[in-house]
Amino acid sequence: MKRESLIPFGRTNDHSIDYLLGILEDARFTTLQRVNEISTAELHWQFSEGWNTVAALLSHIISCKHYMRIHFIEGKEWTKAQNEEWLPGLEMGKYIPQLITNEPIEFYLQRLEESYQLFVESVKMLDTEAFHKKREGYDPDTGCNLAWVLYHVAEDEVHHRGQISLLRKLYNHKNQSHVSAKS
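RE: above sequence
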């Protein structure tokens, strides 16, 4: 798969939505590049107790897409089942131990794809009015709009992708140090 360097316009009725979809697509593409061929051991490795793992960060990206789609685009609250499934990934923190599941990367790739496709399909259904309309939330003084919420989804994935890159470098450094010490 090749990274797109052009953002297509005309997929929706609002060019600002098309622009944001292009940003979301690129963020996802580069996230997938960062976890390409990652081992299960590296996926669930912790630098130190309480630290995020790559798997926990992927769970967060997945959960964030579901939360933002359901809460902000669809205007619903999570069901009890959705809350049980996605809250640990959304909040991480005290849930980190239960996010270390030893599932392989294919498990996360399938869930990333599912959450992404549901999210993008919801975004494509937005009209200009819904995209720009002021809503309550995030900032109690000013509220927010979906344009900001969707930007935040992209920004959040890019931020956590940076953490994934750092964890992978730390993992590789630690494992190279052990190999050198044994030689």
